[in-house]
Amino acid sequence: MSGIDDFLAMLAAERGAARNTLLAYGRDLAQAEEMLGAKLAEASPAQLAKLAQGWSSLAPSTVARKVSALRQFFGFLVDEGEREDDPTHALPRPVPRRPLPKILTHAQVEALFLRAEDEAASDRPDAVRLLVMLELLYGSGLRATELVSLPLSAVPRDEPFLTVTGKGGQARLVPVSRRARHALGRWLAIRPSGSRYLFPSRNSHLTRIRLYQLLKQLAVRADLPPEKLSPHVLRHAFATHLLEGGADLRALQTLLGHADIATTQIYTHVDASRLVKLVNERHPLAQLRRSD
């Protein structure tokens, strides 16, 4: 018994893992077993250590994913009493580099909004809806899933906030600009009724895939490269431009719904030029040099 099928069944039944997740875990474990030429569940620490050589050409992030799959697999075997030891201490410990977020310039954001506002002037429902989604992605920093799944009850009535349920089911209040509230009002006046979602579709709510498509089509109409635009890129632009404007990193963490400040710190690289200028102009030694 390889144990892999039992492990995948546990992931599906107890953790509710998605099909793509199960396929990825299954693929990583099967490849490791093939590289070893023996049953993975019976592998020794010395055998697992040899995997590092076979992974030497892979990106650190890919190796980290494979190591994670193996650690969980052997942890499962120990929990089930199939093994007394956990040999994964012999696996490599890659440190994946967090990719820097793609950035939209202020001019590119302006071009997007000019096009979206021009199209929404017709009061076509699809154009007004796209303008609202653009306002909330860039103006409030929502994730794609948070946006498309917004219930109608989350829309503010008298206060400039949305109640958003983020990762891990954590709720947070997200500020909504006057511009976005105005666009929301236009959308609510023409939005199809009968759904509990702010952006309804035939069966439920607008999908993330459809949101991606709509944004890329807007980019083309705004004479921007479509590959540069996605919901996540707009969220990055929200964070980047707030920092450029002097926002506090802790406040930004709250707005983005990050559990760990380290996740938010990735945005500080984009503000490097402002920080250098700040040190050169405001540091006591800079003041001393000017007085000399």
Short description:
This protein is mainly α. The protein has helices at residues 4-14, 19-36, 45-49, 51-54, 60-79, 106-120, 125-140, 144-148, 178-190, 208-221, 231-244, 249-256, 261-264, 272-282, 284-291, and strands at 161-165, 171-175. It has a two-stranded antiparallel sheet with strand order 1-2.
Order of helices and strands: HHHHHHHHEEHHHHHHH
Q: Which spans have pLDDT < 50 for at least 5 consecutive residues?
A: none
Radius of gyration, whole Å? 24 Å
Walk across the major sheet and give the strand order.
1-2
Structural class: mainly alpha
| Average pLDDT score | 84
What is the overall silhouette?
Answer: elongated
Helical element count? 15
Termini distance?
A: 79 Å
Strand content: under 5%
Largest sheet: 2 strands, antiparallel
- Approximate helicity band: 55-70%
Q: Count the strands?
A: 2
Characterise the protein shown here.
57% of the residues lie in helices and 3% in strands. It is mainly α and 292 residues long. Strands 1-2 form a two-stranded antiparallel sheet. It has helices spanning 4-14, 19-36, 45-49, 51-54, 60-79, 106-120, 125-140, 144-148, 178-190, 208-221, 231-244, 249-256, 261-264, 272-282, 284-291; strands spanning 161-165, 171-175.
Which helices and strands appear, and what pairs or packs with what?
Elements: H1 4-14, H2 19-36, H3 45-49, H4 51-54, H5 60-79, H6 106-120, H7 125-140, H8 144-148, E1 161-165, E2 171-175, H9 178-190, H10 208-221, H11 231-244, H12 249-256, H13 261-264, H14 272-282, H15 284-291
Antiparallel strand pairs: 1-2
